[in-house]
Write a structure and sequence with these properties.
223 residues, mainly beta, 8-stranded mixed β-sheet, 5-stranded antiparallel β-sheet, 3% helix
Length: 223
Amino acid sequence: MLLTLALAGALATPVLAEQAPAEALTGLLGVLEIPKLISAPDPNAPPGSRLPVAPRPVRLYAGPDREARVVAVARRLEDLAVIEFAYEESGAAIFGRRDGWYLVGLARGGRGWISPDDGGRFHSLPSLLSGHPAYLTGVWDGTVRRAPEASSKPNRVDLSSVAFDRDINVVGTLPVGGRLWLEVELLPEGRCKGTDVKPIARGWLPAHDHRGRLNVWFYPRGC
């Protein structure tokens, strides 16, 4: 089940592709590659092609401990909540980390822990947002702050006189008090049209709102 961002008028809250609750990405920390569930890329085939190797089952536990109860067995990547993090490259949505273990979302709902032996490369949320063209979701409240802290006064951005399609550059990331803050540049239309665009405004905003929903997301395949 592929996690995506629904488009309904203004960009909406991150949701699952198949009418899942809007909180599907609440508290997301990043994306984990799981080698046992994905065969290796085929270097002699078109991009996205993989060698015909059968995936190996991965157990998910109720806690970050091999003695914990097994809550699910993933036999393919699609058994998990999946996010495309680069062109034709997908991994599991991660909502917690502890002692090398990863808390993974399940496609059917619920979550389970994957052991360090089954986890591959982890792509943190800061690296995903700063490493790809990004945009503001419908959760964003229309403000930015001068400093990455809740006590900094929010300033509403005046977008009434510009063509703005929610495109941004994430130019800085900073964890403060257990909360991820993003330094962003708001861009006018034209970033993906080969034109030289100058930022409309610049400031800080939290990656998640007070309910844990994402204010910012990214295009995994670029423009």
